[in-house]
Amino acid sequence: MKVSHKWLKNYIDLEAEPEEVKEKLTMLGLEVESVEYLGEKYKNFYVGEVLEVMKHPNADKLTVCKVNVGKDTLQIICGAPNVAVGQKVPVALVGAVIPRNQHDPEGKPFVLTRAKIRGVESYGMICSEYELALGDDKEGIMVLEPDAIVGQPLAEYFGLDDVVYDVSITPNRPDCLSHIGIARELAVAFGLKLKKPEVKLAESSKKVFEFASVEIIDTVNCPRYAARVVLNVKVEPSPKWLQNYLKSVGLRPINNIVDITNFVLYEVGHPLHAFDYDKLAGHKIVVKCAEEGEVFITLDGKARTLRRDTLMICDAEKPVAIAGVMGGLNSEITERTRNVLIESAYFNPISIRRTSKYLGLSTDASYRFERGADPNAVIWAVNRAAQLMAEIAGGEVLEGVIDVYPIKIEPKIINLRFSRLNSIIGIEIPKGEVIKILEGLELEILKLDENGLTVKVPTFRPDLEREIDLIEEVARVYGYDKIPDKMSSIVHFSTDKIKTDFHELIRERLIGAGFKEVVTNSMLDEDRARIFGDNFVKVLNPLSREMSALRTSLIPSALDVVRHNFGYGIKNLKFFEIGKVFRVSFDEDEKPKFVDNYIEEERLLILMTGLAEPISYDVKERNFDIYDLKGEVEKLFRAVFLENYQFIYYSNNSEISEFELGVEIGGKYAGRLMKVSEALLKKFDLEADVYIAEIDFDLIRENSKIEERHYSEIPKFPSVYRDLAFVIDESVSVGDVEKAIRESAGDVLKSIRLFDIYRGEKIGEGKKSVAFSLEILSPEKTLTDEEVNSLIQKVVKYVEQKLDAKLRSY
Amino acid sequence: MINQIEEVKAKFLEELQTLKDEKELEEFRVKYLGRRGIIQSLFDKLKEIPREEKPTVGKILNELKELAQEKFNEKKKEIEAKKEKVKISLDLTIPGRFKYTGRKHPLTQTLEEIKKIFVSMGFEVASGPEIEDDYHNFEALNIPPEHPARDMQDTFFIKENIILRTHTSPVQIRVMKSKQPPVRIIAPGRVYRNEAISARSYCLFHQVEGLYVDEGVSFAELKGTLLAFAKQMFGSSVKLRFRPSFFPFTEPSAEVDVSCFICGGKGCKVCKYGGWLEILGCGMVDPNVFKFVGYDSERYTGYAFGMGVERIAMLKYGIDDIRLFYENDFRFLEQF
Ligand SMILES: [Zn+2]
Question: What is the ipTM of this complex?
Answer without folding.
Answer: 0.86
